[in-house]
Amino acid sequence: MTEQMTGAQALVRALEHVGVDTVFGIPGGAILPAYDPLYDSAKVRHVLVRHEQGAGHAAQGYAQATGRVGVCMATSGPGATNLVTPIADAYMDSVPIVAITGQVASAAIGTDAFQEADISGITMPITKHNFLVINPDDIPRTIAEAFHIAATGRPGPVLVDIAKDALQAMTTFQWPPVMQLPGYRPVTRPHSKQIREAAKLIADAKRPVLYVGGGVHKARAAAELLEFAELTGIPVVTTLMARGTFPDSHRQHLGMPGMHGSVPAVGALQRSDLIIGLGVRFDDRVTGQLSTFAPHAKIVHADIDPAEISKNRHADVPIVGDCKEVISDLIAAVRNEDRKGDYSEWWTQLDAYRATYPRGYDEFEDGSLAPQYVMERLSALVGPDAIYTAGVGQHQMWAAQFIGYENPGTFINSGGAGTMGFALPAAMGAKMGSPDTTVWAIDGDGCFQMTNQELATCTIEGVPIKVAIINNGNLGMVRQWQTLFYNQRYSNTDLQTVRRIPDFVKLAEAYGCVGLRCERPEDVDATIKKAMEINDVPVVVDFVVHQDAMVWPMVAAGTSNDEIKFARDMAPVWDSED
């Protein structure tokens, strides 16, 4: 099909053809030509956010909740640079989004024109790929390529920067375009020899662990993972980005590894003789001091991105491929092995860890609210079918530890970048992508103040998310480090929210939301139930918690996982034979 139209019309038409139904953005001068035909589109809903960072995180939340590519749009210069943080966040966490930005007219590029910024250059290190389009004829093909790149292989963000004159000029629209992607050939099928080698190591191992990362969820391989784990009987740990990919309630699940992981999960990795890493990065928050990580373990490392294999820890058996196909092939290979691994002694050891070092937390003698208790009650009353989002910090870790995740993709958070302000707009995007699902944003009082203006967007657009502010009056995780490592010198971490500046209930009401406050443990259930009964407007709950609550267990940065503390100055006593 061919048709004469402007570049802006071609952009909107191409978005319709690739299946876009929602775009989060803010108009401005350079992108304004695109907003005119967008006004007429019956297929694409534009959501007018209050800040471009909100648009980017909303696109991430939409993508994570739906498995489709999220889309955000901004104008040139400051509009585009405000997207840098969510683009970087999406890059770290392998989230498929396409960011479309307007650029000054092609003749003005490089002249320091009004609202000009080299957004292609700025984002080059934090995008999977990016495009600068100055010819209107290239717009349909570029959009098709951008969505293909974002969604295939290891997912990630793609930037499409379009000059204003390219949007205004006439072009001949053709669909489908012929994509030109020489050299882009993601490997999805694993090599059979490597699969057989992995199966042999599994049969030989005495203390194996399945180390499961976000790549398993991205590959939609939760069912295959469950089958593989039950077939082999190997214990499972799930990273922050994989929470829910394997059910928390499953007998073989040991919890989350890493800096704030469970003692059984951390201990299992440290004492393992074989780690099967699936869709993981062996990042510093999991490994601790890398030279001391799992010193006796051989490594099977499977990832769709060959650049991740052996990047941090040498892989004895490297497997490049899509985790769904890798796990399916491993299942077949393990079944073909004559021998089956005997892990009975290993499970005896791990069960002892579970019995000795269960999850727990301190309660406060003055009757103050413990944030972990809020999470436990949210988990019990809201349940595992909801989607929970979180930003970064103590609230994120408590949400990871004390909410039970049974379903893949139900915990959406900022893992690699650790972005304050992520939770609320991500919840908005997730709710728009999954309107029939209950969505709770778990936020800190610091994070919430970064992007709370998107409550206005939620109210106006009819997006009834629920927000739980874990309000300890401080930048909590930074304060925890000041407590532990800086002699309790609390430099610039007191947010003064105990003085109710701002008053989060009044702020919620000013944005057209329902505002609730809870300060006592005995009121938590009633408050959560009241929030759950309101489904026509957003609800914000100010949970006022004790400022001294800390996240435990903890491995101090740069130290060995063997030095994990399950409470202050309290470390596990590992087995003497180790």
UniProtKB/TrEMBL annotation:
Occurrences of domain Thiamine pyrophosphate enzyme central (ranges): 195-330
Domain of life: Bacteria
Cofactor binding, note field: Binds 1 thiamine pyrophosphate per subunit. Binds 1 Mg(2+) ion per subunit.
Residue ranges of domain Thiamine pyrophosphate enzyme N-terminal TPP-binding in the record: 5-120
Record-level GO cellular component terms: acetolactate synthase complex
Annotated keywords: Amino-acid biosynthesis, Branched-chain amino acid biosynthesis, FAD, Flavoprotein, Magnesium, Metal-binding, Thiamine pyrophosphate, Transferase
Gene Ontology biological-process annotations: isoleucine biosynthetic process; L-valine biosynthetic process
Transmembrane intervals: none
Catalytic activity: 2 pyruvate + H(+) = (2S)-2-acetolactate + CO2
Pathway involvement of the protein, from the record: Amino-acid biosynthesis; L-valine biosynthesis; L-valine from pyruvate: step 1/4; Amino-acid biosynthesis; L-isoleucine biosynthesis; L-isoleucine from 2-oxobutanoate: step 1/4
MF terms (GO), sorted A to Z: acetolactate synthase activity; flavin adenine dinucleotide binding; magnesium ion binding; thiamine pyrophosphate binding
A Pfam family reported for this protein in Swiss-Prot or TrEMBL: TPP_enzyme_N
Domain Thiamine pyrophosphate enzyme TPP-binding: 391-543
PANTHER family in UniProt: ACETOLACTATE SYNTHASE CATALYTIC SUBUNIT, MITOCHONDRIAL, THIAMINE PYROPHOSPHATE ENZYMES
Name of the protein in its database record: Acetolactate synthase
Taxon lineage: Bacteria, Bacillati, Actinomycetota, Actinomycetes, Streptosporangiales
